[in-house]
Amino acid sequence: MSTQQEPAVPGPGxxxxxxxxxxxxxxxxxxxxxxxxxxVWVVFLGGNLLDLxxxxxxxxxxxxxxxxxxxxxxxxxxxxxxxxxxxxxxLTMINPLRWYRIPWPRISEIYLAESVxxxxxxxxxxxxxxxxxxALYSPRKARLKADIRGRRWERGAPSRPGGYGRxxxxxxxxxxxxxxxxxxxxIDAKAKDAVGRGASGGRVExxxxxxxxxxxxxxxxxxxxxxxxx
Length: 230
Fold this sequence. Notes:
Elements: E1 2-5, H1 17-25, E2 27-30, H2 32-55, H3 59-78, E3 83-86, E4 90-94, E5 98-103, E6 107-112, E7 115-120, E8 129-137, H4 140-156, H5 169-174, H6 179-196, E9 205-208, H7 210-217, H8 219-229
Antiparallel strand pairs: 1-2, 2-3, 3-4, 4-5, 5-9, 6-7, 7-8
């Protein structure tokens, strides 16, 4: 599980106690796997571009370089970009090509299928909708493995004096959860706490990620043009 806590202390002479508290509540949720994939790709890309720069000085090298850069935009959008950000007022869900802003009171339910899904209530002239998070996913196979792991721990508990057999029920339940389930549960607790503190509602906003779209789409026409002109 990878949750990244934002700095809780503002710079000297800036911000108020309320602002500091808001920063402290801000938290980013994402899984480590996609981040590892991104950096593996960066190393692969750097190695190939360096090799092409040293040895390749022809039209084919140009085609390969543009193709690698075009793929990089797609890899970035699908791995490093997606995240879910929770703060004092609501949730920002960033997917490869879209991002959404959901005020806490508009989240009526959070549940887990292949990904974490946020069911939004109707309000402020907007209809209810269910939004799927790209960053927080939990395939059925992963959930099944976590459940099997928990059952094995339970079967082995008597042979572990002072160990798992004496853990509270929460600990036993935790052994059956995936990292994504932990994150979904924490986000759900934040939503309920915010509503309990009287958080105000608002519209669920959705926008296209234009820079991400540009990064993905611009490379492929350029590559096609270079191939066509060859």
